[in-house]
Design goal:
Elements: E1 10-13, H1 21-24, H2 26-34, E2 38-40, E3 48-49, H3 55-61, E4 73-77, E5 93-97, H4 100-105, H5 120-123, E6 134-137, H6 146-152, E7 158-160, H7 167-175, E8 179-182, H8 185-193, E9 198-200, H9 209-218, H10 229-234, H11 243-256
Parallel strand pairs: 1-2, 1-3, 3-4, 4-5, 6-7, 6-8, 8-9
């Protein structure tokens, strides 16, 4: 039997207002799982919402059913802040969310979770040699923060990684480190994906919800609260004790991706 192949671009919405590798890896990962080309589109026309805290955008743009009757899919995205009103969920397909806090705030009982960023090691395998250095991945809003810059310059073993840089290069820089200090959520997620131990650094001015949501999704007990740089230096770990949960999240991501959006749908 011949299986029909859909090679038309999958319409994906992701945040492009400012450069950020965590958003920019969206088409790489979605294209890998769907087996189709991916192109950016406005949220009202999107087939899919994936990496990032996109549910506020989904709520704002999916209040009414689409005229064509199609429902865009939510796959692995999460909330940035609590929301009020859930009628918009009738107009979307809720395949998977980032973590249990998002599910609880949506008033949905879900048992599987996953951030699609955990698949990056399969899309961009790291084939180099891991270096004896500590990567510092600030939230993009903190890249010019004097404290961050001073800490990064305080030791030649520290590598300051700019989240506004080329997405693939940023990911492979993270993969090359022995440890990562990150106030960027996807700095932490990329480290987990590549098996690099990491420490959550205080994300000044950012809501903690998305970090705690992700931590709960994979049982990261060390992420109950962020550390400052001095605390982080004293708490560096060389192990990832929650690796089985990362594997389970990857399985959930593959299993929940809607078949209708794959190239062989």
């Amino acid at each position: 039997m011949t299986v029909a192949s859909n090679t038309n671009p999958l319409h994906l919405h992701w945040w492009k207002a400012e450069p950020n590798f965590g958003d920019a890896i969206n088409p790489l990962i979605v294209g890998h799982v769907a087996g189709r080309p991916v192109e950016h589109i406005g949220p009202r026309q999107a087939d899919l919402f994936a990496i990032g805290s996109m549910l506020q955008v989904v709520k704002r743009t999916q209040k009414e059913p689409r005229k064509d009757g199609e429902k865009p899919c939510v796959w692995g995205t999460g909330l940035l802040n609590p929301i009020f009103g859930h009628d918009f969920l009738d107009n979307v397909e809720l395949a998977l969310v980032r973590g249990p806090i998002t599910a609880a705030l949506l008033k949905r009982e879900m048992k599987r979770f996953g951030d699609p960023g955990l698949l990056i090691n399969e899309v961009l395998p790291f084939e180099g040699t891991r270096q004896d250095r500590v990567g510092i991945v600030p939230h993009l809003s903190l890249m010019e923060d004097p404290e961050v810059l001073a800490f990064a310059a305080s030791d030649p073993a520290y590598l300051l990684i700019d989240p506004r840089g080329d997405a693939a290069e940023v990911c492979l820089q993270i993969a090359s480190c022995a440890h990562v200090f990150a106030s960027s959520l996807h700095g932490l997620i990329m480290a987990d994906a590549y098996g690099v131990p990491s420490t959550w650094i205080e994300p000044k001015g950012q809501s903690w919800l998305k970090y705690l949501d992700y931590a709960a999704s994979i049982g990261r007990r060390d992420m109950t609260a962020p550390l400052n740089f001095d605390e982080a230096k004293a708490a560096t770990s060389a192990a990832i004790p929650y690796n089985d949960a990362i594997i389970a999240a990857r399985e959930a991501l593959y299993q929940s991706f809607p078949a209708r959006l794959k190239s062989t749908a």
